[in-house]
Amino acid sequence: MQRFTISLDDALAAQFDELIATMGYENRSEAVRDLIRARLSRALLPAAADAPGGTALWCVATVNFVYDHHDRTLAARVLALQHDHHDLVVSSLHTQLGHDDGLEAVVLRGPLDEVHACAQKLLALRGVRHGHAHVVPLAHDAAAHHHPGAHAAHGHHKPLN
Prior knowledge:
about 160 residues; five-stranded antiparallel sheet
């Protein structure tokens, strides 16, 4: 573990301490680590998308949006899009918000460009409101291995930072 010191003016330090207390962090270090991870992820995604050699960066994403679940054509388009991208959709959850609105949470995993395109299609559907995609870049552990009773060798993905 590396240690480093930063200097903040009193007003900024007080605002930061208020933020970390509100967010429930136990200490400044945890909050700073999360800020660094978030900023690195945002910086890595565009750079990785333009990486030479055609190596696709993998990612995992949650796509959350609110929509009127009584709009049967919209509900059908949401389901159809998820079925069209069954190779990316890990799971989805629908939560009733009231009589008319529902929150859909879709987990996607796959190559960054494909996940991004699928997320954008979901969020761009007419009738979708309050949508957001949160993308986390993943590194692939190329060392394939077996688990007892498993049918095939496989590798794993883990967050880049």
